TrEMBL record:
Protein name: Gfo/Idh/MocA family oxidoreductase
Residue ranges that the Swiss-Prot or TrEMBL entry lists as coiled coil: none
Ranges of residues in domain Gfo/Idh/MocA-like oxidoreductase N-terminal: 2-112
InterPro entries the UniProt entry points to: Gfo/Idh/MocA-like_OxRdtase_N (IPR000683), Gfo/Idh/MocA_Oxidoreductase (IPR052515), GFO_IDH_MocA-like_dom (IPR055170), NAD(P)-bd_dom_sf (IPR036291)
Any one Gene Ontology molecular-function term assigned to this protein's record: nucleotide binding
Domain spans labelled GFO/IDH/MocA-like oxidoreductase: 130-250
Amino acid sequence: MIRVAVVGTGGIARACHMPALAGERHRAEVVAVVDVDGARAEAFRAEHGVPRAYTGLGEMLDRERPDLVHICTPPYLHARQVVQCLSAGAWVWCEKPPCVSLAEHDRITAAESGTFAAVIFQHRFGSGARHLRELVAGGALGRPTVALCVTAWYRDHAYYSAPWRGTWETEGGGPALGHGIHQTDLMLSVLGDWEEIRAMAGRIDRPVRTEDASAASVRFAGGAMASVLTSVLSPREESYLRFDFTEATVELRHLYGYRNADWTCTPPDLWKPPDDVPSSHAAQLADLLDSYERGERPALSGKEGRQSLEFVTGLYASALTGRPVLRSDLTEDNPFYHRLDGGIGL
């Protein structure tokens, strides 16, 4: 059995991680939970039948020696906690965003030594996304030309009452980092690396120090271009991706997760997914555990796990400087490599 620990017992752990782990109970066992709030940790432990609860990550790692740790804490804690787990000999599965700067991500990758840290981008793992990538790789759709990537979500003022939300220091960024990154990551998995980005970001209505909406125009290394819009100001919520190829158009409309029925293709006869797997934590966890059992680097770790954070870094660098940004600009001597606001702020 793969021994699993869950760090952070908030809503995402309860709604997504524990159900996913329940589906893998034949090969994964939750042996401990960690939360700085002892009462909350104990309540979570009792609710889910976990043997032990801790208030300290170090103590849990020393006593339990887990094989895999799920990190479900606020973004500013991710890098330190992930490195601590890797150094203790555990693999890590970390909620998005993986951390709050490219510098932190590179420190995470440097800490891997027979252990790996993967970030949660579950939309790559539904059968629709897998089928689309297979069609693209096989040339059935032709060459990608243009794309739309829209995250039109709604988060009210009360959502930002959590003290870590809405600041560069603790959340790392606004919806481009914490919300739209799911759609962005799926777009990148289809179109590959970007080359140039021109962006705007604004604080239009919400009580935040980051942005609450952003828009970007992107050129990819392969020549395709995309428009990317991200908002938490949209009462009718939708996640929408459109990919136009020389021979077909593929669209996805959903909100927080999709099935095959949420995809359309023109012409429709090109679209024949062999199965119907929803995008979910469960789908990605199954893939991660397969990699663990084989001792292979898992998907969305290392360079692949860095891809979406790199995109968001470029978006903020362009929006805050008012200039186009090349992917090649994001080197260690660039201030945005170290802070997503580049020390400028919005």
